[in-house]
Structure prediction request, 844 residues.
Amino acid sequence: MSDMIRTENLSKRFRSTSALNEATLAVPEGAIYALVGANGAGKTTLIKLLMNIFHPTSGRARVMGIECRHLAGKDFQRIGYVSENQDMPDWMTVEAMLDYLRPFYPQWDGALEQQLVRQFDLPLKRKLKHLSRGMRMKAAFASSLAYRPKLIVLDEPFSGLDPLVRDEIIEGLLDRAPETTIFLSSHDLAEIESFASHVGYLEQGRLLFSEEMSVLSDRFREITITLSAPSPVPWNIPPTWLQVEAGDAVIRFVDSNFQGQATTRQLAEIFPSAGDISIEPIPLRSIFLALAKTGRTALRKTDEGKAEA
Amino acid sequence: MKQILHIFAKDCRHFWPEILISVALVGALVWIYPSTWLSKSGLYAVAGGAFLPGMLEAGVLAALLTVLVPVSWWLLIARVIHAESLVGDRQFWVTRPYEWKKLLGAKALFLVAFLYLPLLIGQCLLLFRAGFPPLPFVPGLLFNLLLITAVIVLPLLAITTVTATFARLTVTLLAGLVCFIGYVVISLYLSDNASIPYRDHVSLPLAFCFCAVVVVLQYASRRVWVSRLVLGALPLLLVLTGMTLSESTEMGRDYPRAGAGQEGPVRLALLRDTPHPATAYLDRAKQVQVSIPLQVSGVAEGYALVSGPVRVTVDAANGSQWTSPWQALNNQQYLPGTSESWITFQMSRAFFDQTRSTPVTLHFTVALTRVQAGNVRSIPLPTQDFSVPDFGICSPQADVFHSRFFGIACRFALHQPNLTYIRARWMDSPCSASQPGLDTGVQGDAWMGSLESSPADFGIAPVWSPSIALSNGTKMEGNQPESRYLCPGTPVTFTQYNLVGRTQYDFTIPDFRFPSYQPIRGSFNGSMGFDITAQ
Prediction:
């Protein structure tokens, strides 16, 4: 299976600010790749680099085998791009916009267009500037899905939408999933957890990881250890244990490198007096919260270290 | 082509109000502009210099329209280019299958359809209304469109492609205008304002190329900062070009010196014993304008000389010296019969004050253009429009009752005519029914036109109607000036002159004493602007 998107040490600086720092990722064909991270993490920058809206400061990126710097014109006949902050031709009605865009795409599927219009309940005669935010997004989706793109790139597509509209859009998107690759950014973890096959995490311009969702879920566990007596956190805990909290004879942490029996043996060695060990899978949201908090603490320590030096 | 037409059709649907405004303004120009030449002709004659009611307003409106039409282009260009803005990262179109060449083609097609074509049609109609069949002038009209592209459209396009919104475009244009005015004011303050002698062959092509590069660069790559740098470098380069182009080199190229031993085409010397001696006016705080009467001789029969820029070196008795830059204050014509003329230059007030009390030697270098008389057409003055071949269409300027003519008004297609010498005889008394004789009355003459040979001069309107001011048109009756008459049937002679060559001519005036300068006062002249009068 070939990669639809591949970046290597992709970086972007805006004057003195590093918006993206040596991001390397690969999105295989057919994947639903969710790029997550807090606001300002660099998600939009990465997507705009992929779409040749920004030009990278260093590194390289390829989309559908094409160097991003050269992505133009007909290449976009196979790419559907929807962004929460994209300008639209507001003076057009929904119908006029679809009519206008249709000739740009030789593979435009009129039947699919009609289906999307019905599915999203789009008011064809209304001008885009008079549509609600949700309706505008649905119109943008319809205009980007009707030509059956090979790659759909979505920048915060669900941001600020009410749950009903969000579900409608996700449903429309998933209908196209078998025939396309989807790359989307979001800071709303709960909504992507249900359908993303791959996930990447950006923290302050750094891509902390990029992997399959199932691997990620298997890798993270919340571990709660009940001790026979109150005890401080041992000094020799591995760095893959995140957010270690010690309470009254209870130690709780997130293991980011859970390996089944091997982890159990390791726990027994570190906590020989453990009475009860609870190992639970955790939702994506908790994984990212743990990563985010740990990442910020680490970054803060790094900054403090630099300041002292 | 399909995509070009598709985007073009979308822009037509979207910008029909802007299109309508622009086309309507061109239509209004076609309707109103003829008043500028009709007001000078017999049909809408003026008496005693006063416009007939309505004509002044029409003239002002016509002038206003020649400004409003480009302003409407500004709006049109801004709207159509910003519809697919090249600046920013949120545009709808950048992630759609637009091909930049086709997008640029669509915008070019839009401008051709709604800027150039209406203007071209409007200009043809204006030529037609002025009495010129448009077809022979099509090459000239196209050349004029090229000039309009270089001067207005392309710079506007270039700035529009590097700005995101109409407001930013406007601010950029205003800032550019303020910088330009500042540059001109500073230049005038720092330098001698008379020093504008040579033609700039570099700036317009340079600006054209830079603006074209910016437009193509923006459409091809949307490298906004690179394009802005290129565009920002242009004024700097123009200033640098202006500074590095040596006046002497330019003048030496345009006006080569005659070979050693070669006699000059004219002899100029100080005119002594004249009732009008040399004068000097304090022109500005640091400049004195000096005019010296000249004796002219030696112009060959069948030729004439047009004096151009002048450079003067003043050698003082104490050994000090002052040399002026080339100054364009002189525009005199010397005919075979010309015996007197003037030469005018500006000099430093400090040096003037230093040398005023002692004799000085003046070394002049005059840029001369030698022209040869060509076609001569003598036409009895009719009472209606009359066509002068290879010149233009003229008409007598009549008073409101058509009872007498007090001048001739002419109009020209696309550019001023070739240099032409016009002669006619004024009558002091009312015209009689008989044909006026060639020897009666007072001769009035005027020079009209230029030696430039471009197919068209830059202009929104293609008809030029400069005033022809025949000399001796008034006489003094007591203390009152009174107009003389041009009688119907009086022969009006048009002599065309063709360029023979250009050269520099040197002459020296020894032992010259500068006159005391007169302070000047400024008064506002309603029709001509700021008028300088000696106290």
